[in-house]
Amino acid sequence: MSQVYNFSAGPAMLPAEVLKQAQEELLSWQGLGTSVMEISHRSPEFLAVAQESERDLRDLMAIPDNYTVLFMHGGGRGQFAAVPLNLAAKGQRAMHLVSGSWSKASVVEASKYIQADSADIRFERDGTIGASLDMMPELSTDTAFVHYCPNETVDGIELFGVPQTDKTIVADMSSNILSRPVNVADYGVIWAGAQKNIGPSGLSVVIVRSDLLGSPQADTPVILDYTAAANNESMFNTPPTYSWYLSGLVFKWLKQQGGVAAVEAINRQKAELLYECIDASALYNNRIAAENRSRMNVVFQLADESLNAEFLAQAKDNGLHALKGHRSVGGMRASIYNAMPLIGVQTLVEFMREFERTKG
Ligand SMILES: *Cc1c(COP(=O)(O)O)cnc(C)c1O
Fold it and tell me: Per the domain annotation, does 130 fall within a domain?
C-alpha cells in the first residue's frame, strides 16, 4: 500500500506507532490472552492503564494537583451540556465568546440549562477575518463562567491568548489540546473531545479545578456529572475503555516526541510551511488574520472554485486524503494535528505547487 497522509478534521489520524502497537496487542494484551477491550474496567490491569494515562497527561500538561482529570463519554457535544450543568445553577448566567462554528454551537446547548449569554468576538479587517479576546464584553456579577473555543476547527481560527477576566474560564480545546503548552492554572475547566488530538471519538477529557466540583444541577444525567465521575475515578459507569487505552498510548507517544513543547515546535514548522505555500500562490487563498491562523486546521480556497473537484481527486491519487473543507465554509481544509508528520505537510505543499503549475 502506498503512503497515505490523512488530513481529516476528526476523527483524525493517529500516530502510526500507536496504531501498530494497538494492532500487536489486539488479540492478547499484556499476555492475558484477551484484548484490553474485553476485560473489566475494574481489573487491576485496566486500573493501571487508567492511572498511568492520567499521570502521563498530568506530566504533559503540567496539571497542578488541585485539578481533577476526568475521562468521560459523549465527545464534544456532551461537554456542551456538561459544562453548564456542572458549573452553573439553573437559570444562572454564563458568557460564551463566539469565534466560529463550535463556540456558536455551545451557546445553543447551554441555553437549555442556563441563561447562556454570548458575545460575537469575530472581526473583519482589510479583507481578513479573525477573532479577538479583547472584544470581551462587560460581565454581570452573577456570571458563573466564561466559555470560549481557542481553536475553531471548522473556521481555522485560533486564539493564542487567554480571556482577561476574574470569572472562571472554560476552554473547549477539542482541536488544539496538547498542540502547545498552556498554563492550566489560568482555567477553571479545560475540556476536549478526543478524536482530534488525543484518540478515538466518543471519549472526552475534562480537566477541572477541584473546588468547582460538588454542585451539579439536580437533574444532571449522571454520565455528565463531573462530581460523580470524580468520586468514582471516571468509572461510575463503564468508561469507553478502548478509547481510553488508545489515548494512553498517544500520551506515551507524545512523551517520546519530547513532550508538548517539542511537538509545538514541529506544529509551528508544519503550519508555517503550509501558510507560506498559500501566501506565495496566486491560486490558493487563506483569509484568516495573521494572528488567528490556526496551527491545527488550515483552511484555504482555490481562486478558481471550478478546480475544487479536480484538486481533491488529484490530491487523493497522490495519497493526500480528506482535504475537503467543512460543508459550511467550502473550499479546502488541511487538519495537521500532532500526529501529522512534517513529511505529510511537505508532501502536500509539493502537490499544491505542482497542481498550481499545471493549472496556472
Ligand atoms: C469536533 C469538535 C466538537 C464536537 O465534538 P463531538 O465529539 O462531535 O461532539 C466541539 N468543539 C470543537 C472545537 C470541535 O473541534
Answer: yes
Residue 277 belongs to a domain: yes
Alpha carbon dihedral 14, 248, 215, 168, in 10-degree steps, equals -60
Whole-model pTM? 0.98
Cα 319 from Cα 300, distance rounded (Å): 19
Establish whether residue 175 lines the binding site of ligand 1, counting it when its CB lies within 6 angstroms of any ligand atom.
Answer: yes
158 CB near ligand 1 (under 6 Å)? no
Instruction: Please report which residue ranges of 36-110 form alpha helices under DSSP H.
Output: 44-61, 75-87, 101-110
Kindly report, residue by residue over 187-241, the tens digit of the pLDDT. 999 999 999 999 999 999 999 999 999 999 999 999 999 999 999 999 999 999 9
Q: Is residue 89 part of a domain?
A: yes
Q: 193 alpha carbon to ligand 1 midpoint, in Å? A: 6
Cβ distance 6 to 318 under 8 Å?
Answer: no
**Residue 358 CB coordination number (10 Å):** 9
Total number of residues shown for the chain: 360
Check whether residue 56 and residue 94 sit in a common domain: yes
Active site residue 253: no
